[in-house]
Specification:
Number of domains of chain A: 4
Radius of gyration of chain A: 27 Å
Helix content of chain A: 55-70%
Number of helices of chain A: 21
Strand order of the largest sheet of chain B: 2-4-5-7-6
Strand order of the largest sheet of chain A: 3-4-5-6-7
Structural class of chain B: alpha+beta
Number of helices of chain B: 4
CATH architecture of the largest domain in chain B: Beta Barrel
Distance between the termini of chain A: 70 Å
Oligomer: heterodimer
Number of strands of chain B: 7
Order of helices and strands of chain B: HHEHEEEEEEH
Strand content of chain B: 25-35%
Number of strands of chain A: 10
Chain lengths: 661, 179
Amino acid sequence: MIVEIGHFALALALGVAVVQSVVPLWGVARHDRALAGVGSSAAIACFLLVALSFAALVVSYVRSDFSVENVAANSHSTQPLIYKLTSVWGNHEGSMLLWVLILTLFGALVALSRRSLPVRLRAGTLAAQGMVTVAFLAFTLLTSNPFRRVFPAPADGQDLNPILQDLGLAIHPPLLYVGYVGFSITYAFAVAALIDGRIDAVWARAVRPWTLLAWVFLTLGIAMGSYWAYYELGWGGWWFWDPVENASLMPWLAGTALIHSTVVMEKRDALKVWTILLAILTFSLSLLGTFIVRSGVLTSVHSFATDPARGLFILMILVFFVGGSLALFAWRAPLLRQGGLFAPVSREGALVVNNVFIATACATVFIGTLYPLVLEMVTGAKISVGPPFFNATFIPVLVPLLLVLPLGQSMAWKRGDLLGAAQRNAAAFGLALLVALATIAMTWGGPVLAPLGIGLGIFLVLGALFDLGERIVTRASGWSAVLSRAKGLPRSAWGTALAHAGVGLSVIGIAATAWSTEGIGVLKPGERLTSGRYTVVLESIQPRKGPNFTAEVARFQIFSGSRELAPVEAGKRIYTARAMPTTEAGIRTDGLSQAYIALGEPQGDGAIAVRLYDKPLILLIWIGAIVMSLGGALSLTDRRFRLAAPRRSATAQPVAVQPAE
Amino acid sequence: MSAAEPVEPARHVVTKRRFTRKQRRLVLIGAAGGVLCLAAGLVLFALRDTIVFFYGPTEIAEKGVTPGTRMRLGGLVEQGSVVRGPGQRIVFSITDSRTVMKVTYDGLLPDLFREGQGVVTEGVFQGGDQFRADSILAKHDETYMPREVADTLKKQGHWQPGDAGASAPQAKPAPQATQ
């Protein structure tokens, strides 16, 4: 019964979404405030209906109702409750429902937000969001219905893919989807602005919190997914330049450019047309990602169950929304009032540099990801574009940007001073150079570029900290003055510094992977294996039984030099329902570094193949990402987003004191 | 030094301060164009040098791949062909039911490597029927057949849709998710 209610609620939501996408626009056209306001209630109703539907699916999973095909295919009665819950989105149909749930959640949030939006903007935004919702609800209902019954009901389910039976699945997809799908709202705002034919600082201030919110979650989602792949897949890698990973990286890059360009639009009323285009492109890349992941057109290590019919449907959605919005853009953008002028050497000029480089980097990822597809269609040749391609294109484009980032960060709005910015960053640059040189000296004969990467990371971290210090600490003032200045500094300034420092931390972590080492050996109990700084001694191999798997668990003593760390266990599991093996890596965290043990095949004579990695400073990669999102979250709490009416606060920009122009 | 490009013309402006809207826009477009050209150059250069072609065992002979070429090789792991040792060495055969390639690999195999299953390896073609693999791609799903492998098998006329496990001994019904 509850299953049918869920199905019905989903169908009803489709109807409401149609109302949400049509009526507000009609109201705007007829200058009827009441009709234009229908979007808000429709968006909220739509969210409640989809939430009801999602809850129905969750209940079916918790109750292990195997008469539902989706539950039977992806769950098992012996699964622990947490994995029964996460199974809901551990498959195509359920994850589509989560997708739509988040889509409607954002619509409802816009409807409920107390920020006073112009009526026409709110109506247009909700209508555009409604159209996206209609498309994806139709997709879910027509091709991926999670509520389909199966008769007769099987006695037990087929179990969730063991790789997915992990806490990572509980955290990674929801975070990622909030990010991915969250960009739909900036897309909707852009479409609404184009329909309305008016964009200004109010628009930018309305859009920026949503962009930041989506970006924060996408950052966390990607980082979490990367860490999950790192510990779960047992290869010790954290990023593979795989199409599915690139699918999430592209919207992230475009979103990063977008949060920077909206600042320019908000503060300086410039870059309007570009920002609109970027908002459209960001969500288009999210849609492209959805297409890549779910159609199976590109071979990926992250294989989803795929179906050509679904791929075609998503392709049609993609063409409609990308093509439609770009056509609207081409038609309406020339009518938009041009933004103000600005000097190239200024904060806004630096942000343009940021946008140019990030957009270019995003384009290289785009080409690398889709080139195999195009080449196969044209010539029939099958190729793979792997890490060497991205190392040769993406990194050279991004590194110059990171090098000039601290300069841009310390520049003033309107009219910057390149020499002054260079002087302000001289100390940070000098220290970073010193660290890089020291690293080169200490690791003589090792990787050449890695020490420079470390130096770059340090430069970013110090640049961010020194810039904050510059703003807070004034000459000949006591602690109280510093404190009050720190208090007066807008949260967005703290957020910017934090996010940029986070980038630096990640860069250090990534550079340090050049020193990671791998050792492989066949060990019997009592034997040892060394890799890098770590030595492990195999203590014992024992069988163990879990709720829905059997495992062989190897216990290791682990030493860093002569210092003994806490022992670590690594295992191999066989999940009974699917007779599928998985590797459970044994990871010992040692400061910011990790020793990583993965088991291979048993060799028959009581010995087992063991792979040991020394991963220096690897945690910094994800810590950096978390710091970045904290920075974004801090910016989100900035007072100018909390105030109901857009108002220029005196403290927001100390440099905005009118210079003559 | 590409980093300097968008910044360089800037200094100019501060000293002169007499740029028209059009000129400023030109500077901007020029700088952006410069970065894009640089990136396009990098991309073209990288596409020539870093891409790896995928072949099935039969295609290697047909296309006359020269020994020493880096490539991906895919097909089915031949039943009974896996020989382990000495040490970490593993030797096995990849077949598309017409041609067989002998693959040598040092290292740990992914969890889902099984005889009779599809596999994709990356490495260097040694000539004849010898292939030296340095990585074997792992897949998340036991019923998953790499698309290239499926195409290769189709070409050789040994593929039935839904035959994902091919001749795998424990062939069980594919999960509904693939239907």
